[in-house]
TrEMBL record:
Top-level lineage group: Bacteria
Signal peptide: none
Family label: Belongs to the peptidase S33 family.
Domain AB hydrolase-1, first and last residues per copy: 89-459
UniProt-listed InterPro entries: AB_hydrolase_1, AB_hydrolase_fold, Serine_prot/Carboxylest_S33
SUPFAM superfamilies xrefs: alpha/beta-Hydrolases (SSF53474)
Pfam families membership: Abhydrolase_1
Entry's Gene Ontology molecular function annotations: hydrolase activity
Protein's organism: Streptosporangium minutum
Name by which UniProt lists this protein: AB hydrolase-1 domain-containing protein
C-alpha cells in the first residue's frame, strides 16, 4: 500500500479507451498466451541504455484468452556473472500502482539486493496492468476534497458516494475496458505469463507491500510453479470485514505513534524533546478538526485527514526527526491564515490513478451510510486513542464508497498446498502492513516469518545485515531462517 493520492480537479477534455491500442491475442492449450512463450524480445531502454526493456502480451480478461490484449512492460538488469546465473528474479515494489519498470531503471529495490544476489540473478521488474507503461489508467478528475472522506451528515455521505461513482465512470471512459480488470488475480496470471516468457520453469519473486498480495495469490493459484518467494511487509487479504481491516490498521498506527513518543522522550534529536508529545499532537488534532491548523510555509489550512496522512506517512521510514520538526512548527503557527489563498484554476489534465481502481477491485470494505461512518470512528478512537483512525486505510476505504465496479477479487482465506518454503519479512512496528497481518499469513505451513525488531515499512531496504544475509541465503540456496527468527533493530539515521 502507499499514501492516498487525492483527486480534486475537473477534467473537460475527452479521451476515449481507443488510445489503449488493444489487440487480440491467441492462447496455447495451457491457457498461456502463445506470445509469452516466445520470449520477451529485450532491447536497451531508450532512457536507460544500461537496462533492457521488453513486454509480454496478455489478454485483458483472462476468461477470454483469445480476446483483446495489452502489453505488460518489463525492465531487466542482467546478472553480473553470467557463468553463475541461477535465473531471473521478478520484483514488484507495491503500491498499489507502483512501477517495477521504473524501480529497475532507477536501481531501486533491485539495487538493494546484495552483490551475491545480483551476481546470480537477472533482476526483472514489471508494471502491473494499468500501471506505468502497461497502459496507465487515467481518470477524469472530480471535485473531491480531502475532507470529503470524513462525512458527518447524510448529505455529505451522499456527495461522497456520487463523486466516487462519477470518478470511476470517468476512469472507464478515459481508459477503456482494462479498468474493470486490474484486480490482483488478473495480475498473477500476467506474472505467470512473464515467467513463461522469461523461460523459467519456476518463479523466483520478491514483492514489497502490495506486491506481497501478488506473491501470496500466485502461490495459491500456481503452487508448483514457485521456486522461491520473498514477501516483504505483508498484506493480509483475509481481513474479511471493513471493521477487521480498519481495526488492525488503527492498532498499527497507534503502536507506531507510541514508538515515536518513546523516541522523543529519550532522544535530543526530537524537536519536541522534553515536551508532552501526546498533548502536542492532541492540540494539533483539535486545531485541524476546528479548521484552525495552519501550514506556516503556505499559510493554508491543513485538514484533519491531511494531518493524519502526513503524520502516519512519517512512520514509514521512520522519519521521526522530520516529523518532530514539522509538529513543532505547526504548534507555533498562528491560529488563522496570514493571507487568503488565491483561487486555483481548475486543471483539465487527466489524473493518473491506477491505485483506486485496483484497491476497489481487490477489497470489499463497504460503508453504507453516515451512521456507520460515525460508529467506525468512535470504535477506532478506542483502538487508537491518539491517532483516532488509520488515515491511509480509511481514505482507501472511503474512496470505494459508490465505486461503480464490483470487487472482482474480494478478501478470502489464504490456503497454500504444495507451496515450497516462502520467506516473509516484516517490521514489528509497521504502520501500513501490521505485524499481526504477517503473523496471520505466516500460519501457512510453508511460510517462515523473519521479524525485524524495528520500525518502518519495507524491511529489505532497512540496511540490516541480518536481513540481507538471510534473504541472500534463501534466494540462492533456498534455505530459510529458523521459525521464530528475529533480526535486531537498527537505529534510524539522525536525518530521519
Amino acid at each position: 500500500m502507499r499514501r492516498h493520492v487525492w483527486v480534486g480537479t475537473v477534467l473537460t477534455a475527452l479521451v476515449t479507451g481507443t488510445a489503449l491500442g488493444i489487440t487480440p491475442v491467441r492462447a496455447d492449450s495451457q491457457g498461456e498466451p502463445r506470445s509469452a512463450t516466445k520470449g520477451v524480445g529485450w532491447k536497451p531502454c531508450p532512457d536507460t541504455p544500461a537496462v533492457e526493456c521488453g513486454s509480454v502480451t496478455v489478454p485483458i480478461d483472462w476468461s477470454r484468452p483469445d480476446g483483446p490484449a495489452i502489453e505488460i512492460a518489463l525492465a531487466r538488469r542482467k546478472a553480473t556473472d553470467p557463468s553463475a546465473r541461477i535465473g531471473s528474479i521478478l520484483i514488484n515494489p507495491g503500491g498499489p500502482g507502483a512501477s517495477g519498470v521504473a524501480d529497475v531503471q532507477a536501481d531501486g529495490i533491485g539495487g538493494s539486493f546484495s552483490a551475491g544476489v545480483r551476481r546470480r540473478f537477472d533482476v526483472v521488474g514489471f508494471d502491473p496492468r494499468g500501471v506505468g507503461r502497461s497502459h496507465l489508467i487515467r481518470c477524469r478528475p472530480t471535485t473531491l476534497r480531502p475532507s470529503d472522506v470524513l462525512p458527518t451528515t447524510a448529505e455529505q455521505f451522499r456527495r461522497l458516494r456520487e463523486l466516487n461513482r462519477a470518478y470511476g465512470d470517468g476512469c472507464r471512459k478515459l481508459s477503456g475496458p482494462l479498468v474493470g480488470f486490474v484486480d490482483n488475480k488478473s495480475v498473477i496470471r500476467d506474472m505467470d505469463a512473464i515467467r513463461a516468457a522469461l523461460g523459467e520453469r519456476e518463479l523466483t519473486y520478491y514483492g514489497n507491500s502490495y506486491g506481497t498480495l501478488m506473491g501470496q495469490q500466485y502461490a495459491q493459484m500456481f503452487p508448483h510453479r514457485v521456486r522461491a518467494m520473498v514477501l516483504d511487509s505483508t498484506m493480509d487479504h483475509s481481513q474479511a470485514t471493513t471493521w477487521s481491516f480498519l481495526r488492525s490498521e488503527a492498532k498499527a498506527v497507534q503502536e507506531s505513534f507510541d514508538q515515536y513518543v518513546a523516541w522523543c522522550r529519550r532522544s535530543t534529536d526530537c524537536a519536541l524533546h522534553g515536551k508532552d508529545v501526546r498533548r502536542v499532537f492532541a492540540e494539533l488534532y483539535a486545531r485541524a478538526e476546528r479548521g484552525k491548523l495552519i501550514d506556516p510555509r503556505t499559510t493554508m489550512k491543513i485538514s484533519l485527514i491531511e494531518l493524519l496522512l502526513d503524520t502516519q506517512y512519517a512512520f514509514l521510514g521512520p522519519y521521526w526527526k522530520s516529523l518532530s520538526e514539522d509538529q513543532a512548527k505547526l504548534l507555533a503557527s498562528k491560529p488563522e491564515p496570514a493571507v487568503t489563498a488565491p483561487s486555483k484554476q481548475v486543471s483539465e489534465k487527466p489524473v493518473e490513478d491506477p491505485a483506486t481502481p485496483i484497491f476497489c477491485q481487490d477489497w470489499r470494505v463497504p460503508v453504507r451510510n453516515v451512521d456507520e461512518v460515525q460508529a467506525y470512528r468512535r470504535k477506532l478512537a478506542q483502538v487508537a486513542p491518539d491517532m483516532k483512525l488509520p488515515a491511509q486505510a480509511w481514505a482507501s476505504t472511503m474512496t470505494c464508497v459508490g465505486w461503480p465496479d464490483r470487487a472482482r477479487n474480494p478478501q478470502e482465506p489464504l490456503r497454500w498446498k504444495g507451496v515450497p518454503p516462502v520467506l516473509m519479512l516484516n517490521s514489528r512496528y509497521d504502520p501500513v502492513t501490521p505485524y499481526e497481518w504477517a503473523q496471520n499469513v505466516a500460519r501457512q505451513p510453508s511460510a517462515v516469518l523473519l521479524t525485524y525488531d524495528g520500525w518502518g515499512h519495507g524491511v529489505y531496504s532497512m540496511d540490516s545485515g541480518c536481513v540481507t544475509a538471510a534473504t541472500e541465503r534463501y534466494l540462492i540456496d533456498l534455505r530459510t531462517p529458523a521459525r521464530g527468527a528475529h533480526c535486531p533493530a537498527i537505529k534510524p539515521p539522525p536525518g530521519r
